[in-house]
Design a protein that fits this description.
Residues 17-254 form the ABC transporter domain. Residues 260-283 are annotated as: Disordered. GO terms for molecular function: ATP binding; ATP hydrolysis activity; transmembrane transporter activity. InterPro entries: AAA+_ATPase, ABC_transporter-like_ATP-bd, ABC_transporter-like_CS, ABC_transpr_LolD-like, MacB-like_ATP-bd, P-loop_NTPase. By secondary structure, the chain is α/β, with parallel strands linked by helices. It has one domain: Rossmann fold (3-Layer(aba) Sandwich), CATH 3.40.50.300. The protein is 39% helix and 22% strand. The protein contains ten helices and ten strands. It has helices at residues 59-66, 89-99, 115-125, 132-141, 157-169, 187-202, 215-218, 241-249, 251-259, 263-281; strands spanning 15-26, 33-44, 48-52, 74-79, 82-83, 100-103, 175-179, 208-211, 223-228, 231-237. The strands form two sheets. The protein has a six-stranded mixed β-sheet, with helices on both faces. The two termini are 15 Å apart. Bound molecules: adenosine-5'-diphosphate and magnesium ion. Magnesium ion (MG) binds at residues 59-60. The site of magnesium ion has 2 residues, from α1.
Length: 283
């Protein structure tokens, strides 16, 4: 459906995101839930990854830990070669501002700020120079060049999410994380959002990690990571809608196999590495 890994930028071979043995447990003792169980992965810069899995499988936890919005109990997260672990609260916030963009299902725009002000807010918070021409260029790119002074509640859901995309793009982060970015949108707005994300990877070399439960959304990605019970349960390169839907339907089978021993899990981890190299070298 899409050309993948063409139009390479120089950053393409670099590792944008790395997780080593990341675990996260919620609750304690009796009611402890292992939301993430020893997850390791490596994503090259300039790739679009979808994360899928049943509800409660740890997708949001994975994204939050990888984006520095939550802290893993163990393991390390490395963004663009810099370790995220070991920062205090303000250090972590600084880290996030410099290297991470985040797109939420519910947009998370500031209701009293205009489209343009919302877009430049991360730059302001990071005390970075605001380049108005560049901001307007990004807003024009997402189709909001005529809406600079509108407030969020004067926009449709699709337009709000495009502001959120502009806000994530304007800081030129190492990785953009999106948790169900199309979950609240109609089909057409969802497609616009997915095209913009795809384009930012393909044409501008950004790295995007997107949680979705929608096989159509996942088909816009270069590859899909499947999660089940807080563990990686497989992956798929060059996903198609049908292949993703099929794999999701059988994800339970994979988990059942994995529960019988650790071999399946290791095999999957190995598989991931192979694909990582595949993505790294392009097509
Ligand atoms: P997903 O996004 O795949 O639906 P989550 O990452 O939200 O899954 O949740 C993974 C597991 O961790 C679930 O069992 C969920 O109930 C639990 N969980 C997530 N966040 C919290 C929290 N703040 N407190 C307690 N349990 C949580
Ligand atoms: Mg979730």
């Amino acid at each position: 459906m899409f050309r993948r890994n063409r139009g390479a930028g120089p950053a393409r071979s670099a590792e944008a995101l790395r997780l080593d043995g990341v675990s996260k447990v919620y609750g304690s003792a009796d009611n402890a839930v292992a939301a993430l169980d020893n997850v390791s992965l490596s994503l090259p810069a300039g790739t679009f990854t979808a994360v899928m899995g049943p509800s409660g499988s740890g997708k949001s936890t994975l994204l939050q830990c990888a984006a520095g919005l939550d802290r893993p109990d163990s393991g390390t997260v490395t963004v663009d070669g810099a370790k995220m672990t070991g920062h205090g609260e303000s250090g972590l916030a600084k880290f996030r501002r410099r290297r991470i963009g985040f797109i939420f299902q519910q947009y998370n725009l500031m209701p009293t700020l205009t489209v343009e002000q919302n877009t430049t807010l991360p730059l302001k918070l990071a005390r970075r120079r605001i380049n108005r021409a560049r901001t307007r260029e990004v807003l024009t790119h997402v189709g909001l060049g005529e809406r600079l002074d509108h407030l969020p509640d004067q926009l449709s859901g699709g337009q709000r999410q495009r502001v959120a995309i502009a806000r994530a793009l304007v800081t030129e982060p190492s990785v953009i994380f999106a948790d169900e970015p199309t979950g609240a949108l109609d089909m057409r707005s969802a497609r616009d959002v997915l095209r913009l994300l795809r384009e930012s990877v393909q044409e501008h070399g950004r790295t995007v990690v997107m949680v979705t439960h929608d096989p159509v959304a996942a088909s816009y990605a270069d590859w899909v990571l499947f999660l089940a019970d807080g563990r990686l349960a497989g992956d798929m390169y060059a996903p198609t809608v049908d292949a993703v839907a099929e794999r999701l339907a059988h994800l339970g089978d994979t988990v059942a196999q994995g529960a019988n021993g650790h071999h399946t899990h290791h095999a999957d981890a190995h598989h991931l590495d192979a694909h990582t190299i595949n993505v790294r070298t392009g097509d």
